[in-house]
Amino acid sequence: MSNRRSRNTQTSAATQPPFEGDLLPAAGAKMEAFTFGDPTPVLDERGILDYLECWLNGRWYEPPMSLDGLAKSSRASVFLQSGLNFKRNMLARTFIPHKLLTRQTFEQFALDFLWCGNGYLEKRDSMMRSTLGLQPALGKYMRRGVDLDTYYQVRGWGDEHEFKTGTVFHQREADINQEIYGLPEWLPALQSALLNESATLFRRKYYNNGSHAGFIMYMTDTAQNETDVAALRSALKAAKGPGNFRNLFMYAPGGKKDGIQLIPVSEVAAKDEFASIKNISRDDMLAALRIPPQLMGIVPQNAGGFGSIKEAAEIWAMNELEPVQARLQQVNDWLGEEVVRFRPFEPVADNSLLNP
Q: Most CB within 10 Å of its CB: which of 23, 171, 309, 319?
């Protein structure tokens, strides 16, 4: 009776559908397999963040996303950080310094506006209430108060500074979900930047590992004994890590031609997809930053190249640089004095410098 009950229990357990991640034993063998879960829609999980907007802690509003994480992500890819620095450099190139706004202060102000969509300038007055100058306030640590006119600099728990009301200018990038803080224009390319970083990190691990993506050693030769198998296993383990790429010699008297086989695991696919991932993610970031590839120093892959650098720079200055300059000049209306001024963008006139 007990044998029949245990046999029924085993039969019912075997007929139950497998759950996600369960191991599936194959009949008559010791091989193991596992199932993958269904695709997870990203909209169902991140859509809830749109309802949170900016959280109010009683004194100031928190940003809609982590500025610390956004600052780290801006350096995830060489193309993203280089593109932000390029736009900052072009703005600084055409900026005309003012006695109240130095070039160094403007560069910090412009960089904060580009990487996080929020630029801040603090107006410092004298005892006679005349403006002494404008100083940058790092956008990573700035928080906006409940009345939207008071600003705080919060560097950590208990490390906070409240600015005098009306002394901070906030250059904000428009957002569709909230009107407290700005968000950078390149935010849709964040996933591409992280994918580019992941591909690079995978490639580093791929080369640091002596066996690259790994392989399966398939041995069917009956001429081998357990001692030979153990010696071969020790030799393969010693070929990984530091001092890798070692040659391996094996002598098998009486062995068959295909008695020992090495089957690579996704080695070809890893080599083929790396360049594709890097190029596609790079194009996404350049599209979000709206910078022509020839201005970023990217080497063309075709014989025709990218065309004239001078013409690309002129079109870029008209469509991208001038609108950003116009937005940064909003500080003039707030201060009542023209402190942000730009000279017209002029590319190199001598074509010999562009085409040596």
A: 171
Helix (H) or strand (E) holding 238: helix 226-238
pLDDT at 11 over 70: no
Q: What is the DSSP letter of 144?
A: E
How many Cβ atoms from other residues are within 10 Å of residue 354's Cβ?
A: 13
Strands 151-156, 32-34: pairing kind: unpaired
Give the integer Cα–Cα distance in Å for 10 and 184.
58
pLDDT digits (tens, 9 = 90+) for 296-355: 988 888 777 888 889 999 999 999 999 999 999 999 999 999 999 999 998 765 554 445
User: Can you tell me the distance from the alpha carbon of 57 to that of 305, in angstroms, rounded to the nearest whole number?
Assistant: 53
Model-level pTM greater than 0.90? no
Residue listed under structure tokens 């169902």:
44
pLDDT in tens, 52-75: 467 788 888 999 889 999 999 999
- Residue 210 burial by Cβ neighbours in a 10 Å radius (0-12, 13-18, 19+): middle
Give, for 136, the enclosing helix (H) or strand (E). Answer: strand 131-137
Among the listed residues 125, 171, 124, 138, the one whose alpha carbon sits nearest the alpha carbon of residue 332: 171
- Quote the crossing angle between the two packed helices 190-208 and 78-94, to the nearest 10°: 130
